[in-house]
């Protein structure tokens, strides 16, 4: 089997700066939230939301953010290709699973009781 091709990620200085800005904005959002505790809830939440949105915007303008968006689009496209079962098929498969679980539970119970009888009554001679 052939080895898959190696993916080499090259990030530019600008891309690293965008990621660093996103991290700093995220930290700044947390610091502002706790630092503005005396200013009131509106100031706290306003600063938190604004700085978090700025951090998200900075992240999504980087190459990693663009790759994440492309991955999400590809995933959504693949979900559209899935052939979903009909209600009747889903109900039938659910009944098969329930039946299998009941049969397996009975099998395990019988196996447990048989081993208990063999070990305790026949081999050890303990009567309960």
* Category by helix and strand content: mainly alpha
The main pleated sheet reads as: none
Which regions are unreliable across 5 or more consecutive residues at pLDDT < 50?
none
- Order of H and E elements: HHHH
Number of helices: 4
In round numbers, the mean pLDDT is 91
- In total, the number of strands is 0
Helix content: over 70%
**What is the quaternary state of this protein?**
single chain
What is the CA-based Rg, rounded?
30 Å
Our estimate of the beta-strand percent is: under 5%
Shape: elongated
Termini gap: 60 Å
Give the domain tally. 2
Short description:
The protein is an all-alpha fold.
Question: Layout of SSEs?
Answer:
Blueprint: H1 13-35, H2 41-60, H3 63-81, H4 87-123
Helix pairs in contact: 1-2
Written overview of the protein:
By secondary structure, the protein is mainly α. The protein has 2 domains: 72 residues; 44 residues. The chain has 4 helices and no strands. The mean pLDDT is 91.
Descriptive tags:
4 helices; single chain; 128 residues
């Amino acid at each position: 089997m052939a080895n898959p091709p190696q993916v080499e990620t090259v990030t530019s200085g600008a891309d690293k700066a965008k990621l660093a800005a996103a991290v700093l904005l995220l930290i700044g959002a947390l610091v502002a939230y706790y630092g503005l505790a005396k200013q009131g809830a509106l100031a706290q939440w306003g600063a938190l939301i604004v700085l978090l949105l700025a951090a998200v915007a900075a992240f999504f303008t980087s190459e990693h953010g663009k790759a994440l968006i492309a991955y999400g689009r590809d995933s959504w496209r693949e979900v559209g290709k899935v052939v979903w079962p009909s209600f009747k098929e889903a109900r039938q498969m659910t009944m098969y699973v329930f039946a299998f679980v009941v049969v397996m539970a009975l099998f395990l119970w019988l196996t447990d009781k048989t081993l208990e009888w063999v070990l305790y009554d026949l081999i050890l001679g303990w009567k309960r």
